[in-house]
Amino acid sequence: MADIILDINDLHINYYTPEGIVRAVRGVSLNLCKGESLCIVGESGSGKSTIGLAIIRALPPNALIVKGEIYYNGMDILKLSEEEMTRNIRGKEISIVFQDPVAMFNPLFTIGEILSDVILTHLGLKDKRKVYEYGIKMLKLVELPDPERIYNSYPHELSGGMLQRAAIAIAISANPKVLIADEPTTMLDVTIQAQILDLLKKLKKEFSLSMIFITHNLGVAAEICDRIAVMYAGSLFEEGYIEDILMNPIHPYTKKLLECIPRASKRSLKLKYIPGSLPDLKTSILGCPFAPRCDFAMDICEKQLPSISEVSYKHRVSCHLSLAKR
Amino acid sequence: MNLGDIASTFKLIKSNPLSVIGIAIVATFIVVGIISPYIVPYPDDAWGYTYNLDLRLLPPSINHLFGTDEMGRDLFSRVLLGTRFSLIIAIGVVGIALAIGILMGLVAGYMGGSIAMVLMRLTDMFLAFPPLLLAIAFAATLGRGLVNVIIALALSWWPWYARLVYIQVNSIKNLPFVDAARVIGLSTTKIMFRHILPNSLTPIIIQSALDMGSAILEAAGLSFLGIGVSPPTPEWGLLISQGWALINRAWWISLFPGIAIVITVVGFNLLADTFQELLDPRLRSTMIMRGV
Amino acid sequence: MELLNVLKLKMYFPLKRGIFGKVIGYVKAVDNVTFYINSNEVYSLVGESGSGKSTVARCILKLYEPTDGRILFEDKDITYIKGKELLEYRRKIQAVFQNPYLSLNPRMRVIDIVAEPLLEHLDIDRNEAYKIALEILEKVGLSSDIAKRFPSGLSGGQAQRVAIARAIALKPKLIILDEPTSALDVSLQAQILNLLEDLSNEYKLSYLLISHDLSVVRYISDRVGVMYLGKLVEEGYTESLFENPLHPYTQALISSVPEPDPQRGKLGKRISLPGEPPSAINPPLGCRLHPRCPYAMDICRKEEPPVIEVENGHSVACWLYKSIE
User: Fold this and answer.
1) Choosing a second label site near C30 at 20 to 30 A (CA), which of A34, B186, B241, C154?
2) Cis bond leading into B232, ω under 30°?
3) Domains of chain A by start residue, with CATH
4) Strands C2-17 and C22-38: what pairing?
């Protein structure tokens, strides 16, 4: 059994807004094994990005982790000080790539300046020459053409795809064990997306990276992940190996989601959709958040949050219907 | 802005003592400004039409809360009435500067091209001068008087608003809802005033709150220098200058108008801060977290 | 009947430098594009960023004036019309944009947003317009209590429905949909697509769909045009194009779409295009894809390929198919 490198336990996160307290993550427990890639899939309001930010402790100032632990290699990183987090964890052990590559880069610095900053901070290389060579090596690793030119370029001189590659280079330059990718290809063209997904797969293999990939696109998840976790309105609904989930989805939400997606590979009949809308995250929801929209909702679904049960090897579901069937 | 927003806005304001103070000061300022002619204890003194040499230079007492000036006039009445003049100046200056500035900025921003170039270069010319200097130049040319002060200050200030609006309009005019308005077939004028202008006002609201305080300050400065309002108008700056020579003997004549100016300007600054926090979504969150 | 005819459309944006705005080059965003749309038809323009598809849409919407070429609507040349004629044209062509929160005036109430086109074009008073607006809102599945709200108080799906309501208010003949579901969740996307389909049946509408999402395109389109770097490289009936993509770019595009299939690693077997599209300022000579095309031949580097009709209604601009002529 592979070791668990990241263990999220009963996480609860709130956002404080003028309109009220948004309970974005409500009791989510997940773990990531060494060398595997886990996709957290969900639509807007699911809380998936919040979890990514929480792991790296980069939540906005109006967010608060009100309960739960995140263990990295057995150590609860939520208990670390900001200084310890910056010095030892961020960038060094756990790294992140965001959705908008443009927003990640300070427009006043060249790629090389940002890259060398990270290298100096985390790897302690002193020699300027060595730092430069290492930086170029990183840019080559992410398959950027003409890395010397890119090293001296400013962010606005590069396309979205190239910037995202540079962002990945920076993220892995300090040899982290865990890479969090928050919708890294959502803003990219589909052919560039395919290239970036290829790159991530290659890097994961080469460096035995453990990856948490956050996306709303089930197709992308299918391409890049070993395991997938489906989230909805702050709760975890289903989790398992990607083949299991795609061939045998148990949760009504997962099933419906798969039926909603049009395909480019074949002609789709009339698309299904999920009527209704997300519950108001500012209220504390009793029971299952999907109950109002679920075809199979029973009385108990509105009263009690279903506990998580294991349906088959590592395939877990949080659903009363599934519990009732067993 | 709907009711839910208004309620939560009130809550946020209440949570910050500085905001409450700012609003209280400005509210008091406005109310006093309006009713002062009717509540001054010594109306004739206030307007400055009398003098009573027997009561010259009396220090603060029960009958004369702020003392009397060198003409024997009750200073408290004069400072109180001065509020009205400051109010007129604040509204007049900011109002006129806004009107000119918004129009210029809107037209230049949306039309672009050579119109924008001409208007913005004109704005640049005005902005090249330190505003107070420009105001002094205008005031000196126009001569003393309340109306001239307002005109001088408004003329030196409209370029700031024009520029603010210009920048906002430039970023808004490329948004999809403006395209949608064009696709519907709206005329340029309708687009400018119905779609672009209402969405460009946020930085102006904050700036004009600040500027109300600054207008009072600058008008006081002009009056102090002798090129502002003409005596016997009880404008605060003029009152300060009138007590300046006597500062050692009768400190109260300059002090109390000075305090009035300080409190009023601070009040407007706090109000501007409050507006900024309320209107900027990120700062708004900081306000909320304060209460957590 | 051909509703819309776009003929040899060119849109070049001048690049200016210096204080005097000297023109130093052109961004050839749309370069000689020709296609037509029938009435009661859904035509999609597909392409990635920089393909020029959005620019084509904006030219048709008369947000830009084309550098060259002509646009015919209902057999009338509308390329340079102004004034009253333009206003009449605008009644017949409307648009729905990508991000509903940006395409609705944040300071206008929903009812005013939908009533605005009615008040502008029809000789009716405000109450009359509000009545019609409420009916339209109902048609797109929104209840009347939405009417008083501002866009910020709506969900993404609701806001996009408001945008659709505004677009159909004047009963246009053609609606241009610019990535109408890209900003929405997948579960909502289907709702909106079904709504659009229902509306087109009821109002006998045509749609020009601008999209980069091939799965949406396949679901909703009758015909598809593929654009690359300002050129239309392939065009055909939807099933024909997707089952049998002719142009190497189309093949690459379709095979790059990730899908939730249990049989994974599909992308590994795709036709990949190395590198990135070059800039539209100095596009490659000859066929614009040749630097990245796995099948590039000598002639591709020198001359632009002609448009060749390979099967019924399915044409491609590629030298590989020259022999078919």
Assistant:
1) B186
2) yes
3) 4-93+176-325 (3.40.50.300), 97-175 (no CATH)
4) antiparallel
What mean pLDDT do residues C52-79 have?
94
User: Under DSSP, is residue C8 helix (H, G, I), strand (E, B) or coil?
Assistant: strand
- What's the predicted TM-score (pTM) here? 0.86
Q: Which of B183, B193, B200, B201 to mutate to test the interface with C (most CBs of C within 10 A)?
A: B183
Tell me if C95 and B179 make a contact (CB, 8 A cut-off): yes
Cα angle A86, A87, A92 (rounded to 5 degrees) comes to 90
Query: What's the token pair of residue B219?
Result: 């008008």
Locate the domains of chain C by residue range.
2-259+269-324
Tell me the C-alpha distance between A147 and A136, whole Å.
Answer: 6
Nearest to B184 among C97, C104, C116 (CB): C116
A210-214, B210-214, C224-228: least confident range: B210-214
Which of B4, B9, B289 is closest, CB to CB, to A16? Answer: B289
Candidates A160, A164, A162, A165; CA nearest to A138 is A165
What are the chain B neighbours of A22 within 8 Å (beta carbons)? none
CB proximity A231 to C under 8 Å: no
Position C65: which residue type? E
**What does each C-alpha distance from A167 to A309, B59, C123 come to in angstroms?**
38, 72, 56
**To the nearest whole number, what is the mean pLDDT of chain B?**
86
pLDDT of residue B50: 80
Q: How far apart are CA C264 and CA A244, in angstroms?
A: 12
Domain ranges of chain B: 29-290
Rounded Cα distance, A281 and A284, in Å: 7
Q: Which residues, including other chains, have CB under 8 Å from residue A189's CB and lie 6 or more apart?
A: A160, A161, C48, C49, C212
Query: How far does the CA of residue A221 sit from the closest CA of chain C (Å)?
Result: 7
The three-state secondary structure class of A212 is strand
**CA atoms of B292 and A66, how far apart (whole Å):** 12
* Closest residue to A264, CB basis, from C215, C267, C275: C215
Fold exhibited by the domain C2-259+269-324:
Rossmann fold (3.40.50)
Q: Which of residues 154-173 of A touch C (CB under 8 A)?
A: 159-162
Nearest to B159 by CA among B184, B130, B136: B130
pLDDT score of B285: 59
Contact C114, C136 (CB under 8 A): yes
Work out the burial of residue A83: count CB atoms within 10 Å of its CB; fewer than 13 is exposed, 13-18 middle, 19 or more buried.
Answer: exposed
Q: For chain A, positions 250-269, list CB contacts with chain C under 8 A.
A: 256-258, 260-265, 267-268
Question: Which chain B residue has its CA at the smallest distance from C105's CA?
Answer: B177
On whether the CB atoms of residues C24 and C15 are closer than 8 A, the answer is: yes
DSSP-assigned beta bridge partners for residue C311: C314
Nearest to C169 by CA among C225, C212, C130: C130
Q: Which class for B209: exposed (0-12), middle (13-18), buried (19 or more C-beta within 10 A)?
A: buried
pLDDT at B94: 94
Q: What pLDDT, on a 0 to 100 scale, did the predictor assign at position B1?
A: 43
A62 close contact with B: CB closer than 8 A: yes
ipTM of the complex: 0.88
Chain A residues touching residue C194 (CB < 8 angstroms):
270-271, 273
Q: State which CATH number among 2.60.40.1920, 2.30.38.10, 3.40.50.2300, 1.10.3720.10 fits the domain covering B29-290.
A: 1.10.3720.10
